[in-house]
Amino acid sequence: GQNIDQPTEMTATEGAIVQINCTYQTSGFNGLFWYQQHAGEAPTFLSYNVLDGLEEKGRFSSFLSRSKGYSYLLLKELQMKDSASYLCAVLDSNYQLIWGAGTKLIIKP
Amino acid sequence: NAGVTQTPKFRVLKTGQSMTLLCAQDMNHEYMYWYRQDPGMGLRLIHYSVGEGTTAKGEVPDGYNVSRLKKQNFLLGLESAAPSQTSVYFCASSAPGGGYNEQFFGPGTRLTVL
């Protein structure tokens, strides 16, 4: 079966750094996406990785290791507005997105 | 540009009733999707379309039907609603490209079936 694992909830402090991990087992791999979803709102795109390594985009970075079936999203200089759920999704061999349940990130002052 | 819009935003149905959810996008995207999101679970694909006049089943298609008569619209129908269909429904669209392109989501429809 296909499986995407993420921690259910994480807590971090404003101004700090947090790393949200995602491990996956899917039938094929055509890339990994990270989306942000604020409570009661729609998901919005953050990043896409298809090759191993780190992609940096401002305060957010995403890392991929295909051999380990592992990715992480790194958020630096945390702000209160970063309180949201972070969704990991893998594009499988049928070019369908398989979604994780999401990690709820709580930022404390 | 409005992006992706969904109608209605909220709805309460009784078991056995029918309804249609409307999704519209103004980005000229070829691909459109319907997902449901339930607590503790990832988004699950119900149906999708890769172009006007075409539809395909996703992971959880039972109990739902769809139509894509116009490129900009994607309709999701529930013929006989069941309590198990209580969920938040999201529509999304993307440019063609084998799924590599980011998906743009609508604001969601919160459906309760009593």
The residue ranges of chain A in which pLDDT falls below 50 over 5 or more consecutive positions are none
**Residues in helix, % of chain B:** under 10%
Largest chain interface and its two residue counts?
A-B, 23 and 20 residues
Q: How large, in whole angstroms, is the Cα Rg of chain A?
A: 13 Å
Task: Give a structural overview.
- The complex is a heterodimer of chains A (109) and B (114).
- Chain A has no helices and 11 strands.
- Chain A has strands at residues 3-5, 9-13, 18-25, 32-37, 44-49, 53-57, 60-65, 70-75, 84-91, 97-99, 103-108.
- Chain A is globular, with a radius of gyration of 13 Å.
- The model of chain A has no long low-confidence stretch (mean pLDDT 95).
- Chain B is an all-beta fold.
- Chain B has strands spanning 4-7, 10-13, 19-25, 31-37, 44-51, 54-57, 64-67, 73-78, 87-94, 104-105, 109-113.
- In chain B, strands 2, 4, 5, 6, 9, 10 and 11 form a 7-stranded mixed beta sheet that branches.
- Chain B is globular.
- Chain A binds chain B through residues 4, 8, 30-31, 33, 41-45, 48, 50, 87, 89, 91, 95-102, and chain B through 4, 40-45, 58-59, 90, 98-100, 102-108.
How would you describe this structure in keywords?
heterodimer; A: 109 residues; mainly beta; six-stranded mixed sheet; five-stranded antiparallel sheet; globular; B: 114 residues; 0% helix
